Amino acid sequence: MAHPAPQALRSPLQRALSLLRPSPVSERTPIARGADASSAHARGIELADRAPDREARQHPEGFICLESVSKVYPGRHGGPAVAALDGVDLSVARGEIVGVIGRSGAGKSTLIRLVNGLEKPTSGRVVVDGIDVGALDERALGPARRSIGMIFQHFNLLSSRTVFDNVALPLEILGADRAGIRRRVEPLLDMVGLADKRDRYPAELSGGQKQRVGIARALATEPKVLLSDEATSALDPETTASILDLLAGIQRELGLTILMITHEMAVIRRIAHRVAVIDGGRIVEQGEVADVFAAPAHATTRSFLGAETGRSVPAWIAERLQQAPVEGGKAVLRIVFRGEHATDPVLSQLSRELGIDVNILSGSIERIAGQPFGILLVALPGGAEALARATGFLADRELHTEVIGHVR
Ligand SMILES: Nc1ncnc2c1ncn2[C@@H]1O[C@H](COP(=O)(O)OP(=O)(O)O)[C@@H](O)[C@H]1O
Ligand SMILES: [Mg+2]
Question: What does the alpha-carbon distance between residue 83 and residue 126 come to, in Å, rounded to a whole number?
Fold first, then answer.
C-alpha cells in the first residue's frame, strides 16, 4: 500500500488552518484607518505618517491599548452612577494572549465592550491596531469591528440557522457571494472539527460544539483580534480544556491577538501569556502568568490562586502553622521552581552542601504558559541561622522562596 502523502499526516486543524492563512492584502477586509483612509488609498497616498500610525508607533508593543480608561454608567431609575472602570491601563502586544481575571461585577465585560466599540469610555483612550476605537462614530466602527472577532459565554447562536449558516452570517452581512462564503466557511468548520455537523441546528449540539461554532463565526471575517467574554464559563472542565487548546492552536497558527476575560485561574493557566487582575474597576496586578503565579502581590490575586494546586497549604500543615519561630521546630518554606530549572535537583544539593535535612510536605509540578512550573512546601530544621543559609542558597539559584510559618 502506498504511503500517505505528507499532507495527510497533518492534523485536521493544521490542514484547515493552511487554507485560512491571511490572504493577499488586496483581498482582505480593509481595517478602518479613519474616515478618509479609503479615498487616500485610492489616490495612492502613503498612510504611514497619518495620525493612527503615529499613535501606534508611540505604543510599539500595544496592539490593543487602554490608556487611563474610565467608564461611568448613569444611574438607573434615579439611582447613583456606577463607576465600572477607573483609570485602567492595559496593553496587549500583537500575537499575544492576555487574560483579564476578576469577580462578577469587577468591570470585565465593560472592558471588552470598550475594546470592540460597543461602549465609549467616559475618559481615556482605547486604541486597537492604531485606531482610536472610542473616537469612531457608528459608521466608521463597522469596518473596525470586522477586524475584531468576539466569542461569548452563551454562544449567541441563531437557533433558526444551521451550523453552516451561523458561521456564514457575518459574511452575508458583508455581502459576500455564495461561492465566497463556502470557500471561507468550509475550512473554518474543518478547523473547529464540525465539518460533519454543518447542517445541524444549535439545539442539536453540545455546549462545546456550540462554542466551536461561535469560534468559527468569530473568525469568518479574518479578524486580527479575538475577544472572549467568559467563553468557557458555561462548559465543564474537560470541554473547557479542549476549547482553550483549540484557541491556542488557532492563535499560534494565525498569529491572532487574543484578549480574554474570565473568573477562572484554570483558564489563565492553560492559555494566557500575561494576566491582569481586575477588582472594583481597577487593574490591581498584572504580569507574566508564571511570575504572577509564583509571587502574587495582591490579595485578590491570592484568593483566585488559593484553589490552585500547590499554592494552598494542606489542612494538616495549616492547622499547626505558627507565625513566630518555634524553639526546636522547623521553618515551612514555599519554593517555586520554574522553566528549564523546574526539575533541577536543588533540594538534594541543598542537603549535601549545607548539611540541612529537608522534609517535603507537599508538592506539584504542572505547566503554566507552556513552561514547567513546580511548587514545593518543605520544612527545614535548625533555627534562624540554618534558615538564612538555606534561603540564601535558594536565592542564589534564582528560586522564589517564601517563609510561610513555623511548626513544632
Ligand atoms: N449598561 C449598564 N448600565 C449601568 N450599569 C452597568 C451597565 N453595565 C454594567 N454595569 C455595572 O458596571 C459594573 C461592572 O459590570 P460588568 O462590566 O458587567 O462586570 P463583570 O463583567 O466583571 O461582571 C457592575 O456594577 C454593573 O452592574
Ligand atoms: Mg461579565
Answer: 17
